[in-house]
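Problem statement: downstream parser choked on a complex file, so we are re-checking the raw output for the adenosine-5'-diphosphate run. The parser issue turned out to be on our end (a line-ending mismatch), but while we're here, posting the original submission so the record is complete.
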Amino acid sequence: GFLALQDELLQAEQKDQEIIDAMMLPTISGPNLALWRGDITRLHADAIVNAANSELLGCFCPCHGCVDNAIHSAAGLQLREECYIIMKRLGHQEPVGQAKITSGYNLPCRYVIHTVGPVVIGRVTALHSRQLESCYRKCMELAEQKGIRSIAFPCISTGEYHFPREKAAQIAVHTVRDFIQYSQNEIKVIFNVFTERDETIYQKIFDRE
Ligand code: ADP
């Protein structure tokens, strides 16, 4: 019945929290970085990051495989409504490399931080790299302001936006590490990879540095 279901959900929640605690890898920059492969919408982190598009209203493209789609689908319509209000107030498209925060609604996380990564057409430039770095930094700044203790990042821009995966992973790890070093609060950061290929790329960076 209902109680059994509630119990099951509670256990699942505890298990997810245990996963977050257990997967924190000790690295040279401190014990607060982790690598985890799976669906970001399942994470009971304080915040998950959405690799959004500049409309911020969720993805309507037919790919159905993007993280934006997964997050909006799992969060429910209220997320789109809050994003709509933010966009109306903003009065223009969300620029690349900024961050906006909303509630998580039906997601197990408390907040979603939305950031728009650079679209790479042709060769990746120094501007693309700075923009991607800005995505990670602004999300971390917002998380710090909100007193967030754990945050999960997907591999921003590496899907439909075609940022080269190795370079994107390096930017992700380096930017977050730099931020954590000088940050006031203790914050756990989960690099949430979705594919085995990305897991290998991140693992190599962790092993090497
Ligand atoms: P972008 O448009 O910024 O490139 P995409 O959503 O197309 O964003 O891809 C970003 C990354 O998100 C890709 O590496 C993809 O494998 C990953 N991804 C897709 N679905 C999920 C999910 N449910 N959880 C975590 N990561 C996901």
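For whoever reads this later: The first helix runs from residue 2 to 22.
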